[in-house]
Structure formats: structure tokens, C-alpha cells
Fold this protein.
Amino acid sequence: MAVVSLERTRTPTNDLDQPDIFARHESDIRLYCRRFASVFVSASSATIVDEGGREYIDFLSGAGALNYGHNPEPIKRAVIDYLSKDGILHALDMHTVAKRDFISAFYETVLRPRGLDYKLAFSGPTGTNAVELAMKFARQVTKRESIVAFTNAYHGVSLGSLALTGNRSKRAAAGICLPGVARLPYDGYLGAGFDTAALFERLLDDEGSGIDMPAAVIIETVQAEGGLNTCSAQWLRRICETAKRRGIVTIVDDIQVGCGRTGTFFSFEGTGVEPDIICLSKSLSGIGQPFSLVLIKPELDCLPPGVHNGTFRGNNLAFVGARAALDYWSDPLFQRRLEGLCCVLRERFDAIAREFPTLQTRVVGRGAVLGLTWSDATLARRVSAAAFRRGLIIETCGARDQVLKALPPLTIREDELDSGFKRLHGAIADATGNPRKANRQGGQHD
Ligand code: PMP
């Protein structure tokens, strides 16, 4: 084994000029670059350009990290301005003006108008870091160990979060057992007639169920990696009420579907649920900077200083971007446009489902995170590949990659949206061998 890896790394120095430099030097673990095999150089709004000058419409948006699009002008300006004034870029978790401005804007724009009272804990920079911290809070406050997670959940791939994540191959990569989690079926997992929230309650109250009283239950309102499964408001309420009555901490992982993705800032708005802990990341910085935040009810803020240290907790450039991004949320026009986008996306996907009835096309998801799934589970991957050939970046999700998932920027321009859907139509026709439709409906790469 050692010989093989040494051989692999011994490469001539002029390799830096070779087009396959990534394949030669980057670990085999890389993923998205295999599916979207171009070398990208610039991007604006929902349009991303490769080094050959080819333009792609981006319906991937950094897996939900670019809800405001690539290089959104007002956020970019704030960041450039901050850099040009030698603003503090790194300060561990020390107080900075950038941090103060973000905290104050977050309170005024997000928490106060919604009547929410949370403290802000800045974890390490990625989503999985936020989930790890949320678990730690819940376990310390309850002095219990187990956390209830659901089928097809995705909460990250560091060991604690991975224990919560459902995907078998990702779990297997850990190479060790992943303890401390009780797995329950998500809403709808056992069919429409089976109330899995009732099962949750029953298992907790049955002394013989074999389920230890958990520290927390962690929920995604839309399982954006697990196949765009959604839970009903009623299910969410019952899970949270059941948990609260038994002193179980409720955690909503809004890392992918928060920051407006479902049409409101938090994905659970309007359900009457107020989780004990909320995890946010991805689009929080507004401009794709790594940044995560755990919101905790003040009475759960139980960890003493220093037990969850980290060099990159609170990225000051991200604070600046995030503060500027919050301006979108005080603009009623942005919110109206977002509602409009959610309706338009639903109409467009419903129209596709009607257009390809023989494929048994189903529209899944909610708000501005919608997708398509077909009776042929391999089709999503083939459509994604065909879409890329037509200049549309759109990924798949679900344990078998059986769902085609669209995450266009919430600020996408109409012409970009039209162009993206044209390419998607064409890609479905390509992948299903319907060239007549492809020519009529699906613009080639334009
Ligand atoms: N939770 C959810 C719901 C996610 O979608 C993701 C990322 N896809 C994570 C956690 C982990 O975030 P990260 O990849 O930044 O660690």
C-alpha cells in the first residue's frame, strides 16, 4: 500500500501545466468536480463561467451556500470595502466591530421581529461543526447521551454528526462504530397512513421499547441531502411537543434549508414550533464564506468558556458578508420576490411532471428547494449529466441519487431561470432518448 501511494505522489514538476493536475495531485475523495468537470473561473448571479469561456446556469448554488447568488453586488461591496480598510480578518473569538455589527443586525432583523430569544454560539466554520456543538449543548444540559435522528437524515460527516446521518456508505467511511443515536422513521417513511410522530411518542413512553430517554431530537424540515423528503407542520409540532413534555432538547438543523431556502428565513416559520436549538450555516455569510452559528435558548447555554474551542469560530469576513446579507431581509421587495420564485419554481416543475407522464415524474421538496424523481431511479443521475452537457449545473440527492435537486439562487434573474429550465427540459429529453422534444424545448448550451 505504501509503495502505491509513494508512486502516485512522485510526479514531474512541469505537471503544474497539465490539464489533469487535479486528478494527479488531488485526493480521490473529490466529488463534485467529477460530475461537473470544468475548471471554473468566475461567476455572477446564477451564471458561472469556465476557463474556456463557457457559461453555465448554476442550480447547485454551492449546495445551498449561495442563496444570494455568486458575488451578490451589495455583499461583495461590503466585503471589498472592509478589506480595503484593513478590517480585522482573524481574531479567534475576540470582540470585533464586524462581529458586533453582525450580532446586532441578526438580532434586529431576524430574532426580534419573530419574537425569538436565542443566544448565539459561533462554532467552527462548517455546518458539521455547528451540529457537533448543538449535540454537546443538548448532552450537557440533559446529562443524557442518546440523540434521536431520522431515516435519511444528513447532518454532516465529522464523527458526531455522522452518527446522526443516515447514508450507509458515508457512515461506513468512518471505519468505527457511531454510537449515541437512536434512529426513527421520518415523516412519511412508512407510508402516508403511518404517523411516525405517534411512534416517537409511543417508544418514549413504553418502558419496554428499548429506546433510552434521549438528550435531543434533531430534525430537518426538508431532508435536502436525503431525497427532498418533507415533514408536515403537524408532524413537526407533535415531535417537538412530545420532546418538550419529556425534557428532550429539540434541534432544527436549518443548515441547508434555512436562510430563506423554503421561502422564510427559518424553515419552520409558521408551524408554531420554536426549537431549543437551531443550526445555521451555508448561506449565512451571504457570499460563500465558511461560517456557522448555533442558536440556543438562553436557559440551555450551559457550556463553560473554553470547552469548545476552535481557531476559526467566527470568520470576520463572513460577519461582514452576513451583516450585508441581512439587508435583503429588511427589504419587503426581496421577500415578495422570494414568494414569487417559490410559486414559479413549483409551476415549472409541475409542468415538467405533466410533460413526461410516462416516466412517472414526481415533484418533491418545498419552497425554493424542489426536485424531480422518477420511477427509474437511475434517471436523476443521467439527467444531471445531460444537463451539464447543456450548460446547467444541477445535482442529485437521496441515498441512491434518485432525486434531481434544484437549488437556484433566491435572487436568480428571470432570464437565467428561463435558460436553466430550457436546458433542464433538453436534458430530460436527452436522458430519456426523446430528441424531438430536445430540439423543440431544450436550448442547447447558449
Ligand atoms: N446539515 C445539513 C442539513 C446539511 O445539508 C449539511 C451539508 N450538506 C450539513 C449539515 C453539513 O454541513 P457542512 O458540509 O458545511 O459540514
The chain has 16 helices and 17 strands. Residues 74-329 form a domain with the Aspartate Aminotransferase; domain 2 fold (CATH 3.40.640.10).
